[in-house]
Amino acid sequence: TSLLLMAGIMVAVGLCRRLTRRQLRFHQRLCTFLLEMFSTFQICACTNELCLLGNVEPKPHTALTLTYGFTVLHGLTLTGSTCNPCGTLQPMWGGGLSVKMGGLKIGAQFVAAALARMFMRFIWSLEMAEAHFGAPSQGCSNPMQTTEMQAFCIELLFSVVFQLTILRVESVNPKYKVHLIALLITMLVYAGGNLTGAIFNPALAFSLHANCFYDKFLSYSLVYWIAPSLGKFLILYVF
């Protein structure tokens, strides 16, 4: 049921993206906003569902396999979208994207994160699968299983590694690049998923753990917003 749900989300988003490109190609700002919103919605919604499958046996093989597989599918179906506020900072820093358009994309990403959260909580309330039982009533799931400073360092390091890899594989054939990035994300999730969740995406972090930001805003914004953004700026400054 969960796999069918995620496949349905991807198909629906693909249709919405195609319709947006066709109908709004002369309205650049609205088209950009909607494309980025739909793409980020897909990643956030599917990742919310994947988090519920983390305890499926055999652990952690099932969760890691699904992470790799769906990361590849996201990379193949969401070309042209960053779906990550940190990724949007790079063209803004280099002058390839205006501040206004960059802010529009980041706004779309956070809107999508909130919509994906609400949509998945509604789907979970229907209890279509065993993993959905009790999911809507969960508060802050507390992904930080270590100290705040260690969590900050982990997310900072993972952001640096991820962003550096993105820069290094820019010239690689796209059909190979998507697998390299998916493999890297899977490895980072395996290495730090049990400590911080290995998110290194501010919008995705907000979608997955919105209640935590309400309860412990300073702590979670430091780890899941500032740390990955700082990692991105370190890469931009060095390279």
TrEMBL record:
The superkingdom of the source organism is Eukaryota
Q: Any idea where this protein resides?
A: Membrane
Note the topology in the membrane.
Multi-pass membrane protein
The record's section on SUPFAM superfamilies has:
Aquaporin-like
Q: Which UniProt keywords apply?
A: Membrane, Transmembrane, Transmembrane helix
Q: Its Gene Ontology molecular function terms?
A: channel activity
Query: Where are its TM segments located?
Result: 181-205, 217-238
Name the Pfam families on file.
Answer: MIP
InterPro entries reported for this sequence = AQP11/12_channel, Aquaporin-like, Aquaporin_11, Aquaporin_11/12, MIP
Q: GO cellular-component terms in the record?
A: cytoplasm; membrane
The entry sums up its family as follows: Belongs to the MIP/aquaporin (TC 1.A.8) family. AQP11/AQP12 subfamily.
What is the protein's name according to its record? AQP11 protein
